[in-house]
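Hello,

I think I submitted the flavin mononucleotide job twice by accident. Can you confirm which output corresponds to this input? Input:
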Amino acid sequence: MTPDRFAFLAAAGGAAPSLHNSQPWRFRASDDGLGLLVYRDPSRAIPVTDPMGRALHVSIGAALLNVRVAAASLGLETRLRLLPDPGQPDLIAALGFDQPLPGSRPGSDAELYPAIAARHSSRQPFTNRDVPERLVGELMVAADQEGAVLTMLEESETRRVLALTADAERRTAADVAREAETRSWVRLEAPAADGIPAEALGPLDRDARVPMRSFTGHPPVGVPASARFEPLPQLATFTTAHDDHSAWVRTGMALERVWLIATVNDLRGSVLHQAVEWPDTRWQLRDPETGPGYVQIILRLGYGPPGAASPRRPVTDILQLP
Ligand SMILES: Cc1cc2nc3c(=O)[nH]c(=O)nc-3n(C[C@H](O)[C@H](O)[C@H](O)COP(=O)(O)O)c2cc1C
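Support: Only one job matched these inputs. Its output is below.
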């Protein structure tokens, strides 16, 4: 492993989605210079909206998946140890890299590498075109590979989840501390290395069917005029059997694997997270039909314009070399 390779891997990790583009991760080359350690960065937590650090761990999981994909693009196999040291709670993962054995078949993860830079949250209205069954199947397998269950919601479940999301968005609107915290991550004027820039914000739904998060308050400021969204959005929930740090990190890996495959297939996505942020709406998100499980994140998928890129911190700020 060379400094260039570590920088390449950290840049890929840093391109992952994160709550409010907080980028709550740090990467460090291991002392022997052979592996990469991935830490959470508590100084980048979002404590009012995410008091348990659940979204923070999901974000780091997404970064880990990107590192694995980037390593695959270098022809390396990754050994991943999640939460390897109970004495170091900030250490989320230790990754080791191996040359594949001669004659072994290369994995397909390398093909996902270009999607890391091409993937952006698209907060625009999507068309009515359905995600093909074949692709839904592929996304379910991808989530399962990382330890999460992806469910594409049927119409009645979609309407129920949209109502819960709208309810959560209304409560957030009435919560001064949450509104202020969210607003503090929006960068309308000066360019910045984190947070959400004006170009990445989207309109709100004129018909109030798709409750997009209003990042700039209620009523919103500095965002495009409202627009008509797809009447029945295509929502995928990610569910895990447990609700601990490991499940959250695995959800992030599943989210990013699914989102990269979607990107390769010209499918766009944006997260609808509000209902997961309030304990009671989160509890009600559980589908009574499919049995127990914790809903960790909701991804709206569809065809439409790509989202704008959001900035990232420079690699020198997030990577420590030996
Ligand atoms: C745990 C989590 C929750 C998120 N919640 C929302 C949300 O409620 N609404 C939204 O529009 N984007 C949400 N996002 C997307 C982030 O805002 C986005 O990933 C970040 O701003 C970086 O932009 P990018 O995805 O275009 O790279 C969430 C992302 C994560 C990982």
